[in-house]
Amino acid sequence: MIRAIFPLPVFLLPGGYTKLRIFEPRYLSMVGDALKRDQGFVLCRHIDDAYLNVPKEGVYVRIVDFSQDCTGQLLIDVFAKHRVSIDKPYMDKQNLRHAHIDIIETPIWHYQSTQSSHFTSQMGEMLSKVFSQHPEIDELYREKHFEDPVWVASRWLELLPMKDAEKHKLKSSVNFEQVVSFLHTILNKPQ
Hints:
By secondary structure, this protein is of the alpha+beta class.
């Protein structure tokens, strides 16, 4: 299928939500089209040395809500449904990128419930506290899965203030234990 591509410095994984401010005419058009057709678009990072600055992978998002900020700019809440592969990007007359996309069926990390540890459940409890301390994050998430270690690890990677390249490196890690180990080191640092 062909979908619009929206390169942004936003790190989002399946199951995640984020709020986007839309102000450029081409992206306002993209949002209008997505709402009219009841379909989503692809969020991805901007890659300087890739064709049209489009990487090979992104996340397919759906608009779940919209509003305006105090200046009248459009705000949309999006939900990341799937990781997708991106192929054959092109630009339309409005300079809006589009590409062929395919859903990536394999899970982001291979995880088995036998890998659960005290820390994986502790990560969920810590994340739940973060959500309760930040109502703007809590309200954004229509569904919360604090008992699911992969969902919890994904949300931590989205929220932690670290370089995008580091987040993408961890996302690319096939070994979920490496991700958990990294999060354990970060989340248990003495304050």
